[in-house]
Amino acid sequence: MLQENYRKVAATVQPGVRLVAVSKYKTVEEIKAVYDAGQRVFGENKAQEMRAKHEQLPADVEWHFIGHLQRNKIKYIVDYVSLVHSIDSLDLLKDVNAAASAKGRVVPCLLQFHIAEEETKFGLDLAEAEALLRSAEYKAMRNVRVDGVMGMATFTADKEQVRGEFAALRQIFRTLRERYFAGEDHFKEISMGMSDDYEIAMQEGSTLVRIGSSIFGARDYSLKLY
Ligand SMILES: *Cc1c(COP(=O)(O)O)cnc(C)c1O
């Protein structure tokens, strides 16, 4: 059933777009079933939960961190994380850089933008991102690499609003690429789209879709896995 759901979803992901299977609140056994069906990229939003799963699953899983990252939890992910989608401050990026430096790694990161109407979603605006990218502190960092942007649309049935928010994120991406990453091919990722809105996100230029419930089913938030 899980593998069938996964195959159905994977078949709808356009060429050139990568699927991040969001496995938060799901067990190692459930993740393994999707792994066995061929998926290698998984997304988690809690650092300790991701570490525990990383230790139990095959080494060729690419772990993406997609949640709000607390600075004191970087240590749980820094030595193996493939992409941090959720950088929302210079201070956080500084700490990831320092932790990565101690491990001799360069950690790929995305800047998270606040594109939704809701107050609760984390993220930068364009001016804050530009201040970050212009700062001497950022320019001195050698152990993080900014590969693109991430955002979450408003949770609404209004598809045109969602489309407008994704289009705004794509525009932010283009602006930053032009102003700060000209000629740097690694700056290429737009992480947008979840179970309910990834079709729209792909039409608006997403390169990474983060899909949980359409693959794994509804989450049980009362579960305390780790
Ligand atoms: C949980 C989560 C997702 C996946 O949401 P679904 O609606 O289950 O697909 C995507 N992105 C982030 C940042 C999440 O926290």
Features:
alpha/beta, 226 residues, binds pyridoxal-5'-phosphate, 9 helices, single chain
Please give a quick description of this structure:
The chain has 226 residues and is α/β, with parallel strands linked by helices. Helix content is 39%, strand content 18%.
Number of strands: 8
Helix content: 25-40%
Radius of gyration (Å):
17 Å
Q: Which ranges are low-confidence, i.e. pLDDT below 50, for 5 or more consecutive residues? A: none
DSSP helical segment count:
9
Instruction: Sum up the overall morphology in one term.
Output: globular
Q: What fraction of residues sit in β-strands? A: 15-25%
Question: How many angstroms separate the termini?
Answer: 25 Å
Summarize model confidence as the mean pLDDT.
Answer: 96
Order of helices and strands: HEHEHEEHEHHEHEHEH
Main pleated-sheet profile:
8 strands, parallel
Provide structural commentary:
- The chain starts with a helix and ends in a 10-residue tail after the last helix.
- It is α/β, with parallel strands linked by helices.
- Strands 7-6-5-4-3-2-1-8 form an 8-stranded parallel sheet.
- Helix 2 links the parallel strand 1 (18-22) and strand 2 (41-44).
- The protein is globular, with a radius of gyration of 17 Å.
- 39% of the residues lie in helices and 18% in strands.
- Pyridoxal-5'-phosphate (PLP) binds next to strand 8 and helix 9.
